[in-house]
Amino acid sequence: MWWRRRYSIWDELRRIQEEMDRIFEDLWRGERFLGLPSSPEFSRGFIERSEYRTPLTDMWETDKEVVITMELPGVRKEDIDINIYEDGIEVKVERKAERRDEDERKGMYRFERTYTGFYRYIPLPTNVDTERAEATYNNGVLEIRIPKVKIEEKGGGRKLQIK
Questions:
Q1: Count of helix runs (H) and strand runs (E) in the chain
Q2: Which of 31, 70, 86, 151 is deepest in the core (most CB within 10 A)?
């Protein structure tokens, strides 16, 4: 007997999702995409995706600055490592903890290990002053403020004479 499967839009969406996942996995590992060299941020010793979660992040800009907030629950300020480059900002968090509880009288032993890891690289616009960036951490929320500069102040370019 011949069975014909009914067409479902969800099958097509699942196929598209799988293709997008494959493309982003290649980008995440720093492999070439469509024959083009990988982006510079991927050449900075990129990290295995399975070890880290991506923090919930908001980014907006005003006339004077770019503001980035990240939710990093259960993390101490000392565990956060922020690297800022001219073209982007990298936030990496590693927190390892061990807990031992022993009570020989009750015959109870407990040994727990926890690991929390977050990683995020965010490209920045060209009109920011990374030298004056500031970060604060309060109640599990990291806030990074990067002042904007006028393109002329940053050395927006010069006329190049043809020889």
A1: 1, 7
A2: 70
